[in-house]
């Protein structure tokens, strides 16, 4: 008989330190936890939805890259202000890139497109999503809520209502489930990986390729059961993203090789 005053559901879900708009997730799922097929399916879907960086129409390459980085940093500020899930931020950037590849966009509408994509991502991922009024406030009223709703419809139609995205954030939890650590320790590793991704978010194409390539190494079809090197691979992911963020031109292997068995460095980043 339960005597702690908490329901069985409350004891089986991880509700601590979650964003206010997130849905409580179970600590263990008999199918999705440590299931290699889940990662294989994610890799297949990632190739389907992957998009290269999208830039504004008729802009010099250097200017377009600077504009994209500025937009991503602005979206990251919104994500932090709302204390949202990292998947919302990554999903918004993916939707923005996909839309810019389909519809030529003038630079005057760039912020409107990015903010509207964040609105769509928030609706798909948050239990308490952002509203058009919220996004208009973040844009300093440069766009009215009606303009945002109209752009939202345009984006949905341009993408043929296929708004699903597979991002690097989707791989973090399934991969970490293979580690034979306590649930509390897995949570620390997962949070550190997400924090590092958010820090290096402005370099998303490089970060995403780094994540996906290493996940491919973990889950090669010809060696589905050989996961003995998973902690080292996760360490490479975290250290590699850290060096990307710090813009250091040093070889990752120079730092990873001496640390093959020092997995605790994951928690120091």
TrEMBL record:
Q: Residues in domain Cyclin-like?
A: 73-157
Q: What is the lineage of its organism?
A: Eukaryota, Metazoa, Spiralia, Lophotrochozoa, Platyhelminthes
Q: Which organism is it from?
A: Echinostoma caproni
Protein name as annotated: CYCLIN domain-containing protein
The record's Pfam families line, in alphabetical order, gives:
Cyclin_N
Q: Which family does it belong to?
A: Belongs to the cyclin family.
Q: Which domain of life is it from?
A: Eukaryota
Aminoacyl-tRNA synthetase: is it a keyword of this entry?
A: no
The protein's UniProt keywords, in alphabetical order, are: Cyclin
Q: Identify the SMART domains for this entry.
A: CYCLIN (SM00385)
In terms of InterPro entries, this protein maps to: Cyclin, Cyclin-like_dom, Cyclin-like_sf, Cyclin_N
* Region (Disordered) residue spans: 1-27
**Gene3D superfamilies xref list:** Cyclin-like
